[in-house]
Amino acid sequence: MEVFNAIGRRKAAIARVYLSEGKGNFSINDKKLEEYFPLMQLQYIVKQPFLTLDKIDCYDVKANIDGGGIKGQAEALRLGISRALLKVDAEYRASLKPMGFLTRDPRVVERKKPGQKKARKRFQFSKR
Fold this sequence. Notes:
The chain contains four helices and five strands; from the N terminus they run ββββααβαα. The longest helix has 19 residues, at 70-88. The chain has a five-stranded mixed beta sheet. The chain has helices at residues 33-36, 40-53, 70-88, 93-99; strands spanning 4-10, 13-21, 26-28, 31-32, 59-66. The protein has a single domain, classed as Ribosomal Protein S5, domain 2 (2-Layer Sandwich).
């Protein structure tokens, strides 16, 4: 039984994913999927690559997630799972690529500039 690993990133979140053949169990930071991501929407995001391939009960997922917020962590985990599935079988690419699961979303928070309130917002201008 071989273990396939991959890394997924989104914003400030990093997910290290270990995929092995099993019964569809998820272990995220030593917690169950429902415990770590209580919202159904986030659970769906994590399971999307398996649902697309119709392989939800074929693999066990063990993941370590660090940094970022809860949504960024879920999307980082989705990318990590998709990359690990490619290592299992390269033919999965035809199904995962059009859904956008193999694309690393490059959007991150823009830094705050000095002399301004936020990244783009300025202090109020006074003419007099």
